[in-house]
């Protein structure tokens, strides 16, 4: 008998960003639009910046603050390589958010054809963010994506539609943020890992993979062995 397992992140939210800017922002909830305006009035600014060494360091520092006690990051070199490579090909954009000239939030977006994606998002945990700051950041990504031909913006990852209110789901927090942009969750069948040799696969799933992950974390600081 073959061994199979389903891999996570089989649900997402797809935003329709076609039409005029007023059409796009009009699809957000009234409270989300209000928060975006409040962020602008507070003096918070979302700037498209180059993925220089300095800016990549800022973004990674924000990611470290965000991830602390929540999820495992890959090494800095991985993110820098990803951000800079996508930027060079015209398919990626780094956005940093500033309050009183201090970077307090960051996002990175990608675009392929007519679909853009929300790849990375982070914010400081040392300071309280202005109301609506992260929605203003997302709006800046959407504006950039539209300029590059995108008509659909993928928020990439949310709890499935039947677990949106399940606080035990690992994506509950980010899901609540994304649901304020749209409640139209798209559930996919998921990605299946199908093993052709069931016996060795079960040994790998139970013992091999956990050990490989621990060793990779210990020696390479990377959860992806």
Write up this protein.
The protein is an alpha+beta fold. The chain is built from seven helices and nine strands, in the order E-E-H-H-E-H-H-E-E-E-H-E-H-E-E-H. It has helices at residues 21-26, 30-41, 53-67, 76-88, 133-147, 172-179, 198-220, and strands at residues 3-7, 11-16, 45-49, 92-99, 102-112, 115-123, 152-154, 185-187, 191-195. The strands form two sheets. A seven-stranded mixed sheet has the order 3-4-5-6-7-2-8, with helices on both faces. The protein has a two-stranded antiparallel sheet with strand order 1-9. Helix 2 crosses helix 5 and helix 3 packs across helix 4 (76-88). The radius of gyration is 19 Å and the shape is globular. 27% of the residues are buried. The model has no long low-confidence stretch (mean pLDDT 90).
Compact summary:
By secondary structure, this protein is of the alpha+beta class. It is 41% helix and 24% strand. The chain has helices at residues 21-26, 30-41, 53-67, 76-88, 133-147, 172-179, 198-220; strands at residues 3-7, 11-16, 45-49, 92-99, 102-112, 115-123, 152-154, 185-187, 191-195.
Radius of gyration, in Å, reads: 19 Å
User: How much of the residues is beta strand, in percent?
Assistant: 15-25%
> Helix-strand pattern, N to C?
EEHHEHHEEEHEHEEH
Largest sheet: 7 strands, mixed
Give the spatial strand order of the biggest sheet: 3-4-5-6-7-2-8
Distance between the termini: 27 Å
């Amino acid at each position: 008998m073959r061994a199979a397992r389903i891999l996570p992140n089989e649900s997402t939210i797809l935003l329709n960003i076609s039409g005029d800017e007023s059409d796009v922002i009009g699809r957000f909830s009234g409270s989300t639009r209000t928060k975006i305006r409040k962020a602008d009035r507070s003096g918070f600014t979302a700037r498209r910046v180059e993925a220089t060494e300095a800016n990549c360091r800022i973004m990674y520092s924000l990611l470290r603050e965000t991830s602390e006690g929540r999820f495992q990051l890959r090494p800095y070199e991985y993110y820098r390589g990803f951000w800079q490579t996508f930027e060079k090909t015209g398919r990626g954009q780094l956005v940093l958010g500033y309050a009183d000239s201090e970077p307090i939030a960051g996002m990175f977006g990608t675009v392929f054809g007519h679909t853009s994606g929300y790849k990375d998002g982070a914010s400081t945990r040392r300071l309280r963010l202005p109301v609506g700051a992260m929605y203003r950041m997302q709006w800046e990504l959407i504006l950039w994506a539209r300029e590059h031909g995108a008509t659909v913006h993928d928020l990439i990852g949310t709890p499935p539609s039947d677990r949106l209110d399940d606080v035990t789901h690992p994506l509950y927090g980010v899901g609540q943020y994304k649901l304020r942009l749209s409640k139209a969750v798209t559930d996919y069948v998921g990605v299946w890992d199908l093993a052709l040799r069931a016996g060795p696969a079960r040994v790998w799933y139970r013992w091999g993979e956990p050990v490989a992950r621990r060793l990779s974390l210990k020696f390479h600081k990377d959860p992806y062995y």
